[in-house]
Write a structure and sequence with these properties.
Strand content: 15-25%
Shape: rod-shaped
Largest sheet: 2 strands, antiparallel
Strand order of the largest sheet: 1-2
Number of domains: 1
Structural class: alpha+beta
Radius of gyration: 24 Å
Number of helices: 1
Length: 75
Amino acid sequence: MHKYTIPIPIQVILNDKAKIESVISELDIQKVQALHKTYTQVNRDFGSIFSMLLPGMYRCRMLMLYGVWYKVCMV
């Protein structure tokens, strides 16, 4: 050990690790919520735009496939 190194107790490191993991989990939840909110709004806007462009013929919507993969289809 270098003479200027300050030893850090292992419990401090474990507590910091737990805090970091907690923040990461919270951010993952917020990310999924933001993606879902955006998906819902874009899907609504697609439907509105295509109903004006092609009245009575098609309804356009997005299908969420795998997380951030989307498919746009006419139904």
